[in-house]
Fold this protein.
Amino acid sequence: MLFPAICALCGRIGERVICDYCRGELGPFRPELLHGTGLVAYRAILFDYEGRAKQAVHALKYERVTALGQPLASLISEAVDQYQLEFDLAIPIPIHYFRRCFRGFNQAEILAEGLAPTRVSPTALRRIRHTAPQVSLSRDQRLANLKNAFLARPSVTGKRILLIDDVATTGGTAIAAAEALMAAGATGVGLVALAGNP
Ligand SMILES: [Zn+2]
């Protein structure tokens, strides 16, 4: 027996938090897996950051529709299988303590916990500096802004890390996170994000 649910994206009544219609609108995953961007061995970005995907990210992040966490994590899980990504630890891209207190949760953490509840490590990577919003900065300023923004714990030593984020924009954040993880002894770092620039 399934209780009727209301689609979190379009409001239709059905059986799923993301209805078949909206899942269809999200479209197939982006086919390409981007390899070898410096310290980040691969980047898997599932959808273009527009339309239903943008709406889903906003609902999870700003409207606190936490029911979306599991269905979105399931999409990431499908992609992990499709791209055959192997990892030992799933680590959400951390947000700064202040921002977390303000928002109450880290949306990337919800996704990572839904993806791999037994292999998630939300505390292995910390954001140690409160960085200025990236949007207003040039590329060089962004990289400087992120320098030493993260610190990884020794528990990542010898581990293959899968970073999880809701939106991957410039990739600078993932690179800075990967720097910290590799410095702490991780053997490899990849990134899966729900959405990214078209
Ligand atoms: Zn829908």
Remarks:
- The CA atoms of residues 92 and 164 lie 5 Å apart.
- The pocket of zinc ion is lined by residues 7, 9-10, 12, 19, 21-22 (CB under 6 Å).
- The longest strand covers residues 40-48.
- The chain has seven helices and nine strands.
